[in-house]
Amino acid sequence: MANNTSQHILNTAANLLGFCLFVITAFHVTNTSQTSIIDEFTSLIALLLSFSCFFSFLSIRSKKESKEKKYETIADILFLASLVGIVVIIFLLVFKFIK
After folding, report:
1. Alpha-carbon distance 98 to 96, whole Å?
2. What is the pTM of this model?
3. N or C, where is the chain less crowded by C-beta within 10 Å?
């Protein structure tokens, strides 16, 4: 049985993925996606979060403990990478490297 970490990763990554998709949609609706690269960065983060959700789900559903740990580790790394990406975007916005 998968431990609680995979369930937390899945829940949080899915919520952040929804927020990323909202940001991407907002940029496209307001036609500012051509003048900014934030939506490209956000798309990359959304992709990392999608794979994190996928591997977290596999970890929860896995019957073998070795695969469960492997999938959970992959989900954890992808989730951490996406959080770092979010922090980088915030850093770039705060210091006005991205307009």
Report:
1. 5
2. 0.85
3. N
